[in-house]
Amino acid sequence: MTRADAAGPLTTATPAAAGAPPPAASTQAADGVPPPAALTHAAGGVPPCAAATHANAASAGSSVDAAALEATWRDPPGWRGWICAVNHKTISRRFMVACFGFFIAGGILALLMRLQLAQPSLKLVDARLYNQLFTMHGTTMMFLFAVPIMQAVATYLVPLMIGARTVAFPRMNAFAFWTFLFGGLMLYAAFLAGIGPDAGWFAYVPLSNLHYSPEKGVDYWAQMITFTELSGLLEAIVIITTILKMRAPGMSLRRMPLYVWSMLVTSVMVLFALPAVMLGSTALITDRLVGTHFYAPAQGGDVLLWQHLFWFFGHPEVYLIFIPPLSFISSIIATFARRPVFGYTAMVLSLVATGFLAFGLWVHHMFATNLPELGKTFFTAASLMIAIPTAIQIFCWIATLWRGRLVFKTPLLFVLAFFAILLLGGLTGLMLASVPLDLQLHDTYFVVAHLHYVLLGGAVFPLFGAFFYWFPKFTGRLLSERLGRWQFWLFFIGFNVSFFPMHVLGLQGMPRRVYTYGAEMGWANLNLTASAGAVMIAVSVLLFIVNVWRSRQPAGDDPWRAGTLEWGTSSPPPAANFPLLPVVRSRFPLWEKDGVAGHVCGLSNTQREVLITSGPDAHPDHRARMPEPTPWPFIAALATTALFIGSIYTPWAVVWGAVPVAIACTAWFWPGRQGSKS
User: Fold this and answer.
1) What's the pLDDT score for residue 1?
2) Among candidates 461, 429, 435, 434, which has minimal Cα distance to 447?
3) 610 forms bridges with which residues in the sheet?
4) What is the DSSP string of 353-406?
5) Distance between CA 540 and CA 47 in Å, rounded?
6) Closest Cα partner for 336 from 415, 254, 421, 256?
7) Structural contact between residues 57 and 28, judged by C-beta atoms closer than 8 angstroms
8) Helix 147-161 vs helix 258-289: angle between axes, to the nearest 10 degrees?
9) Which pLDDT value is given to residue 281?
10) Burial code of 152-182, b = ≥16 C-beta within 10 A, e = fewer?
11) Is 419 exposed, middle or buried (0-12, 13-18, 19+ CB in 10 A)?
């Protein structure tokens, strides 16, 4: 980005009347609502913003050339658009489709496992393939779906919610998508070629070292970790910068939507959590390929070092997956209860507290190791404490629903189901926080049930609700309510039929990660029930795909009559999001008569200009020009992929593979005529 302070004056134009339509609905303005005093100036070299009169505001509104603005911000047509696109909505849609594709692939693997376990002594798959199936399933869901889908949705919604025209660093955003996609495809190519990883999605050493896993599957797994976590780190930087520096004038931190707060907390967590697993996987692959001894006790290494590094990432990852859906729920409840969420400050502090406490729980997964017993008690206490912020949010949601005028649409059904499922998943989590009980249940199907109640129930239910809620914004079309309700009930019933019996199986002693069992164990009926539930889940997901494919009903710009800013522009949004950037004075600017206090005029129609605002209070600071579409992020991602795949077979690939990466990055950052490189 480059500063563009000399492109002409900025002004704020007031809306036509109290309760005026949102920015996209009208660019005209009238007397009556003065802009906030804090917004009548701009620092950093921007000429002063003047409160517009009726005449000059109308003139400013009419100066917006919608066609020129669309041409300036849209991606190139045809094949160039596929590899050069940098528009945040284009990248986000691709990200979401790719994540959902991996979700389907991971679900198919899970269904194969459940079919294998439906009856004793079945031989649909052998032990080696079963090990690959559960490794690929867990890896797919945790690294290729759960966290990336949350970031993908955020890169679409956050700029719209904060009144921005794009994300910060749009080329970095594109590069993050391509590295994620190539990393996932690399792992599945290895699996289909018969060299998939088979040491579990957690790859514990010594099981994952060369002695026990001599094939290349674990190497592909370790490099995939580097791929996806690099993508996640870049997306976190993009989201944090967008939130802190590109909010609409007047959107102070206290006026940010709860969803934006959740993504800010999540992205800061990513910056601290992901480097740990990247460091761990790099040490693992150097042990395997170069002969280092990070995890070899005989040479001074430590096998528990891997568990510490992995779970220092792994347990915060649960909350990286869990925190964004909490604010999906807040957005949905506010809209369908027809009132703002109760206890805004308590909700924000709960999100921050959850993000902070999440980093004090990782030994929760290591109670069966020989760590000091006194140390384990501290992590037991932290595991109990982290339930408090979530409980506060639940009470705030209940208060909102209790006083609201509920509209029972499909998104709200998924939210209500979430309450019951999260309650059970949370209670079993508190049980596993007890060291004596955890020692008995460790590595049993009780843990499998708990994990899926927390992650699938606590994240995927709100995620489906969010898809139904924001699908009109993504596409301009409404999903079928009838098919949505069928999908909801099949998913809700199938989920409980599949995973509730696993609690009982765990209490009866069935270990996880076994590919068969004997009839004499007495586990057949419960496993058959769980497999039948998995089939119901698969049918419900198929219904969702059919619903998306068949959706043709026009939605209008705001079918839910929501209050946040993303619904203040057309659905789907234009390339520039907002013809005129809004000036906001409320957390729900579309519900309050003075919520949109005016519009920012003076940004160029023919340059990709954005408004940069100050951190806490969102005062206008300066204009910046965003980079144009380019193929170099795609080429850099290809070069990075070649480097990582080559390094699996020879360390020299790191040296020689760095050359095309350096060339691609040099071309990426080479200053153009306007110097507008991200």
Assistant:
1) 56
2) 429
3) 624
4) HHHHHGGG-GGGGGTTSS--HHHHHHHHHHHHHTHHHHHHHHHHHHHHHHHS--
5) 56
6) 415
7) yes
8) 140
9) 94
10) bbbbbbbbbbbbbbbbbbbbbbbbbbbbbbb
11) middle
Residue from 506, 222, 454, 208 nearest 321 by CA: 454
Local structure of 413: helix, strand or coil: helix
CB 151: neighbour CB atoms within 10 A?
29
Q: What is the mean pLDDT of the chain?
A: 88
Q: Are strands 620-625 and 2-3 parallel, antiparallel or unpaired?
A: antiparallel
pLDDT 10s digits, 382-428: 999 999 999 999 999 999 999 888 889 999 999 999 998 988 898 99
> Which burial class, exposed, middle or buried, applies to 567 when counting CB atoms under 10 A from its CB (0-12, 13-18, 19+)?
buried
Q: Which residue has the tokens 């696109």?
A: 85
Residue 117 has a CB neighbour count (10 Å cut-off) of 25
Q: Match 């966290």 to its residue by tokens.
A: 147
Handedness of CA 108, 113, 114, 116 (dihedral sign): positive
Evaluate the CA torsion angle 563, 564, 569, 570 in order and state its sign: negative
C-beta neighbour count of 422 within 10 angstroms: 24
Phi, psi of 117 (to 5 degrees): -95, 5
d(CA 420, CA 302): 41
Q: What residue type is assigned to position 86 of the chain?
A: V
Rounded to whole angstroms, how far apart are CA atoms 120 and 514?
A: 11
What is the pTM for the complete model shown?
0.89
Map 208-249 to HEC letters: CCCCCCCCCHHHHHHHHHHHHHHHHHHHHHHHHHHHHHCCCC
- The Cα 557–Cα 540 span in angstroms is 28
Q: Are 562 and 590 in contact (CB under 8 A)?
A: yes
**Is the distance from CB of 466 to CB of 561 less than 8 angstroms?**
no
Whether 533 and 495 have beta carbons less than 8 Å apart is answered as: yes
Phi, psi of 609 (to 5 degrees): -95, 140
Mark out the alpha helices in 122-216 (DSSP H runs). Answer: 127-139, 147-161, 170-192
Torsion over CA: 128, 134, 139, 145 (sign): positive
The three-class DSSP label of residue 1 is coil
Tally of CB atoms within 10 A around 62: 10
The 10s digit of each residue's pLDDT in 233-274 is: 999 999 999 999 999 999 999 999 999 999 999 999 999 999
Q: Which residues contact 310 (CB under 8 A, 6 or more apart)?
A: 202, 203, 276, 277, 280
